[in-house]
Amino acid sequence: MENTFMIKTIGVLTSGGDAPGMNAAVRAVVRAALKKGMTVYGVKRGYCGLLEDDIEPMDEMSVAGIISRGGTMLYTARSAEFRTEQGVLKAKATCEKYGLEGLVVIGGDGSFRGAADLSAHGILCVGLPGTIDNDIACTDYTIGYDTAMNTAMELMDKLSDTSQSHYRCSVVEVMGRGAGYIALNTGVASGALEIITKEKPYDLDKIAKKMMEFKARGKQNFIIVVAENIGHSEEICKLIQEKTGIESRATILGHVQRGGSPTVRDRVAATEMGYYAVELLEQGIGNRVVGMQGGKIVDFDIQEALSMEKPYDGKLHQIAEDIAF
Ligand code: ATP
């Protein structure tokens, strides 16, 4: 039977910071493409794989057993060379060598800028939001966010146990280079006294006063969550201790938040988005970013997606402040 698909060969890559659920997305892309009669290649280490010809054919077995694994089986990287015109032309030449007409790019904003450049050179690219920070405006949800938040929350629960036993204050820095969403949600979920994010002004004197008041009323331990992009959680911790006299310890959770087996939510979102990306390419549609809005899968022009702004949930932050003790 004649193959009526507009696109016959596609590639898939993961780029920027790794995120749990990227593997589930790769798996969905590969299996969906094969199911639709396409040939599919895995590009290693993000755009570096296109520049260094590090590409391999994928079949059903290539992605077997990866849905439960964190990280990315395709590896990921950041490439300075790809940001140059010469780099994009080299990447395009590699795509042509393998007959790649379409490419699924799983990553963050930077990776989507690269995908837009490659789309402008005739390679149809579809971006999937893969970043733990949930800082991509066109989507309510990014692949990896739920797993990272659950990891951070579990670690905070453990810190809470020890700070409770010692009548301490724990200042915990969580990830979020571009936004304070992880801090906000894990702060709420772990019952933090205070959540410090870039999106909402904070006042250490007021926080210290609140801690003293609550201490006088019997509270013995405190959690203060700080978003990574605030940048000086050790200093904040020192000042809190100086202002309150309450023994305080800073903990930077760091990269541990990026690892681990993805949650149900991340695996399902990655699978739905991966499948959708292939459906777009199948129709010859590129230069799009796939997202999720109100529980539905949607897609946007890459430039439009990059120009959007994501609202901060000020109401949730207010609730956290109102019920904190
Ligand atoms: P994360 O949110 O995890 O940092 P990201 O995709 O935003 O993910 P970046 O390092 O910003 O991570 O981008 C990944 C890669 O995408 C870069 O190494 C580069 O090759 C490419 N890239 C980034 N910005 C651009 C740009 N403005 N133009 C073209 N390519 C870009």
UniProtKB/TrEMBL annotation:
The active site is at 133 (proton acceptor). The gene is pfkA. It holds the Pfam family PFK. Gene3D superfamilies: 3.40.50.450, Phosphofructokinase domain. It catalyses: beta-D-fructose 6-phosphate + ATP = beta-D-fructose 1,6-bisphosphate + ADP + H(+). One of its GO terms (cellular component) is 6-phosphofructokinase complex. One of its GO terms (biological process) is canonical glycolysis. Substrate binds at residues 131-133, 168, 175-177, 228, 249, 255-258. Its EC number is 2.7.1.11. Pathway: Carbohydrate degradation; glycolysis; D-glyceraldehyde 3-phosphate and glycerone phosphate from D-glucose: step 3/4. ADP binds at residues 27-31, 217, 219-221. Its main location: cytoplasm. It comes from Ruminococcus callidus ATCC 27760. Homotetramer. PANTHER family: ATP-DEPENDENT 6-PHOSPHOFRUCTOKINASE (PTHR13697:SF4), PHOSPHOFRUCTOKINASE (PTHR13697). Belongs to the phosphofructokinase type A (PFKA) family. ATP-dependent PFK group I subfamily. Prokaryotic clade 'B1' sub-subfamily. This is ATP-dependent 6-phosphofructokinase. InterPro entries: ATP_PFK, ATP_PFK_prok-type, PFKA_ATP_prok, Phosphofructokinase_CS, Phosphofructokinase_dom, PKF_sf. ATP binds at residues 17, 78-79, 108-111. Allosterically activated by ADP and other diphosphonucleosides, and allosterically inhibited by phosphoenolpyruvate. Keywords: Allosteric enzyme, ATP-binding, Cytoplasm, Glycolysis, Kinase, Magnesium, Metal-binding, Nucleotide-binding, Transferase.
